[in-house]
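During data preparation, a discrete fold description was generated, as reproduced here:
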Amino acid sequence: MPKVMPKRSYSVVLCRQGLPTDQVSDYVLPVIVVSVRKAVSCITQMTHGGWKAPSNIAPTGVSVITTEGENSADDKSTTNLPSVLAGMERHEALAFVSKLYDHARAGHSVWGDKLLLRKFLGQCSRTNSAETRNGYMRELRHFTRWREANYPDLLLRQIDPHVMQQWVDDLRQRVDAGDLKPNSYNRRISAVSAFYRWASEPARCTTTGVPRNPVPPRCLLAAQKTTKSVSEEDLAALLSVIARSSVGNLKARRDYVLVKGSYLLGCRVSEISRLKWGDVERLSHGGQIQLFGKGSKSRVVRVSGDTMDLFESLGRGAPSDFIFKGQRPGTQLTRQAIAFSMRKWGKLADLDLHPHRLRHSHATHAVRRGVDVFTLQSTLGHASSATTGHYVAANPEDSSSLRLG
């Protein structure tokens, strides 16, 4: 008989599946002394799979499961461990299932997938930024669709490192095939990893049912940050194409203001999308435009009188009206609609055009015209000057040595 560690035991409450908490019955396990592996397996089946007790076991109470000794050969094998716990240190696995037992004993339940995702998206942004939530939502949607296509029977809390590695491998294959850019790959991996880190925090893991982050470490790619801008000549040719099409065409005229205004402001697509007439103010010398950027942070950008004339050529509306209106009354032009319009005009001018490329072009052209980094940082709304510094590095035609002679 295996050696039994004194005064260290684990009780298991096995819930009858489908019954309310106040009708839960306790079932006696048909064993008294089992290995650590068996204890973990039983508790995990109860909390993750809604395990039902055999029909020949009467609900007379809760039995005690004691662990075997530290040197037991049976303990060292993890063959029968639930896959979600496989690879974890024994003390970590036991600590997790002990917390699950206390959680179930107190009458609490484990969150389902929909509630788990909703809770994370409600807490993923420290500043309650809608853009941050939407970004995480997009990346997690890609992951859940992959899960539904390949492992439809697994809940999010049941994803183990083996399954996660398959997802990472599939993404890598798409990168190698050119279907996914390295930056997009890294963003997707980081979003899913952030979700599981949040769900597996010690104070939250018993409610989420997630024991650890299954995303494999060191799987991000070394994606070089390159700032590809449109040359000033190509930009002028693009605007000329749109201007010729805007004669008698209200949508083309709107797109002309959209493209040129995005370039002149150097703003993000989300910022130009939500711009309202109340944010555009004319001053005695030019004007100023208030932008709402990442993290719900606002900034004011001083603009010239010509830029004010550009926006007001659309006809001023009420302060609460969006400048770039959507199809339905009271809505703004969406990010996707803006990207589609720019891509359409880019093809006519033989350019690969998207909203963020105009932002890169603004920064690169400003640096080449002598704008200092800190002014550019304020205009672009970068939290760190290191981000703005990439545009300085992208200007090989200038240096401090040239300025000093």
